[in-house]
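Let us work through a complete example step by step.
Step 1: write down the sequence.
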Amino acid sequence: MTATEGGSGVDAEVGGAVALARVQDQPLSVDEVLAAVRNDRAGAVALFVGQVRDHDGGRGVVALDYSAHPSADSVAETITQRYAARPGIERVAMVHRVGSLVVGDLAIVAAVSAAHRGEAFEACSQLVEEVKAALPIWKHQQFADGTHEWVGIG
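Step 2: predict the structure and record it as tokens.
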């Protein structure tokens, strides 16, 4: 199964730290991601949920499509492994959606469990920023005025 056919990625614990790392074409589950990072050693869980908003750059957004390179699952795993290797981090999970989405749909869910909240917040925030910058996913936005734009190309 490829990234755009329901997701493959990492679904099992790898070295006790990466709990989930994949790209999928099905709706995302916050509960699944939270369950993946649960750990008795963790005193904190930081969670990020990114959803499709109704505007961008002053224009109304009606829908968007995410497209992924075939290497997206592998890149997602590599990125999450880097954060899982940090001191104090217990588990890391990140799932990104591809396909057609509408306003309100979840685009990314990421969570980090750690011994302390500072480590969890910092790692989760940096994880999401790195995913946005490095995961080979491109966004095609459709605007209310009939125009469209690609984001992440080039």
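Step 3: interpret the result. Helices lie at 30-37, 72-84, 117-134.
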